[in-house]
Amino acid sequence: MKITIIGTGYVGLVTGACLAELGNDVFCLDVDHNKIEILNSGGIPIHEPGLDEIVARNRAAGRLVFSTDVAASVAHGDVQFIAVGTPPDEDGSADLQYVLAAARNIGKHMKGFKVIVDKSTVPVGTAERVAAAIQDELAQCASTATFSVVSNPEFLKEGAAVEDFMRPDRIVIGCDDNSLGNLARAQMKKLYTPFNRNHERTYWMDVRSAEFTKYAANAMLATRISFMNELANLADQVGVDIEAVRHGIGSDPRIGHSFLYAGCGYGGSCFPKDVQALERTAQDYGQDLLILHAVEAVNEKQKQVLGAKIMKRFGSDLNGRHFAIWGLAFKPNTDDMRAASSRVLLSELLRAGATVAVYDPVSMAEAKRVFALDFADTPELLANIHYATNPMDALDQADALAIVTEWKAFRSPDFEQVKAKLKQAVIFDGRNLFEPAVMTELGVEYHGIGRSVLT
Ligand code: NAD
């Protein structure tokens, strides 16, 4: 099938590459010339395991094209995926300017019938706004072209995006129940047939319910994390091991084991903004989502938990102190640092007077870019960040190590070397990678999240 993907970011690039891998003829559009240039010269602008091979293979086969040419992109695809960003607006609602700009571009150039797919995470009612924007453009050029807007939210996880896209738990598609909607449904069914070969994974519904499903999923996952984080903070007070509790409750099939890990807060481009956007939608309808309000507040506080533990141990004036941070990305296997907990910790340590050595397996370039923005008002603090070339280098003469991202490479370090490098053998483990008893045996002063068992 002939497919256009508008927006070649984490979602658009993975969607485009994976659909090309299945034999479709895919045209990826982006307004970012730099990104398209990187892709056209054989590079990949993001870190995503397995993506480079798929992109290279399909580019070489001529099934995957990258371009900034809007008219050509609209002419290409019978199905037009909108996969642009929907960042939070100042009031927390999803900023739809990129989605609506993409829609207008389609309206300006389209001929015949097109299926327009909202792949971006967008609030309930967005498909109607997309349709209105396209219709408005068609009216301006007296076009008789027709279209139907479909909602097909994306559930891939960064770091496992290719695998998630190729083997999805579910495919959610919302279509209108009318003649153009039926045409769109038939096209979507054809496109996703290879994914449903072994069993049917598609959940068909109305457009608004599909839009809502994406927010409900992320809100539920964020809720589980904040719930466990709040309990972990209590566990620290009352002398309970939250890891034991996690196993104890996760074994109940009604609860399950996933997303019960206590830590130093969730980040990324999705949970924080989607929780906020859903709260905002509710407000528009005169409702307060009390649970989600708490989920967000708990998470904001949790991002400060490592800083608070460090200051409890070393005092609030950290002048003359030096710390190491392992892990900058918001989670492992990605270079994405949007809303990452590491940014909160780094800022707290630097503003309290400390110097900090940071290390991440893939986010070092992104870290430099992001920190320059974070400290634009206090550029003198940037000089207090040392970018280490490996995890051990980061530990040199540090008063303590703080772990923020659970990269596999951090799970089994040579603890004798860790101790030798650190000025003091103190570890603040924001992802509960290690066993407190083992740390005590090794002579490491260990501070996990919710692991202060009374002995
Ligand atoms: P991203 O910022 O990585 O990519 C968006 C791309 O769209 C950028 O490259 C930008 O230049 C481009 N763009 C903006 N306006 C454009 C236009 N008019 N025409 C063409 N290109 C345009 O964003 P992302 O992380 O891929 O997220 C995209 C959407 O998918 C968001 O709504 C997000 O919430 C949702 N989503 C993201 C993830 C994730 O893990 N990143 C997962 C599921 C859903």
Automatic annotation (TrEMBL):
Instruction: State the Gene Ontology terms under molecular function.
Output: NAD binding; UDP-glucose 6-dehydrogenase activity
**Reactions accelerated catalytically:** UDP-alpha-D-glucose + 2 NAD(+) + H2O = UDP-alpha-D-glucuronate + 2 NADH + 3 H(+)
UniProt KW keywords: NAD, Oxidoreductase
Instruction: Look at the named UniProt entry and state the broad enzyme category this protein falls under.
Output: oxidoreductase
> What EC identifiers does the entry list?
1.1.1.22
Question: Sorted alphabetically, which InterPro entries does this protein's record hold?
Answer: 6-PGluconate_DH-like_C_sf, NAD(P)-bd_dom_sf, UDP-Glc/GDP-Man, UDP-Glc/GDP-Man_DH_C, UDP-Glc/GDP-Man_DH_C_sf, UDP-Glc/GDP-Man_DH_dimer, UDP-Glc/GDP-Man_DH_N, UDPglc_DH_bac
Segments forming a coiled coil:
none
GO terms under biological process: polysaccharide biosynthetic process; UDP-glucuronate biosynthetic process
Detail which positions bind NAD(+): D30, K35, T86, T121, E158, K273, R338
- Pathway listed: Nucleotide-sugar biosynthesis; UDP-alpha-D-glucuronate biosynthesis; UDP-alpha-D-glucuronate from UDP-alpha-D-glucose: step 1/1
**Ranges for the UDP-glucose/GDP-mannose dehydrogenase C-terminal domain?**
324-436
Active site positions: C270
Q: Which residues bind substrate?
A: F155, L156, K157, E158, K214, F259, L260, Y261, A262, G263, G267, K331
- What family name appears in the similarity comment? Belongs to the UDP-glucose/GDP-mannose dehydrogenase family.
From the Swiss-Prot or TrEMBL record, give the protein name: UDP-glucose 6-dehydrogenase
Q: Which organism is it from?
A: Undibacterium piscinae
Taxonomic classification: Bacteria, Pseudomonadati, Pseudomonadota, Betaproteobacteria, Burkholderiales
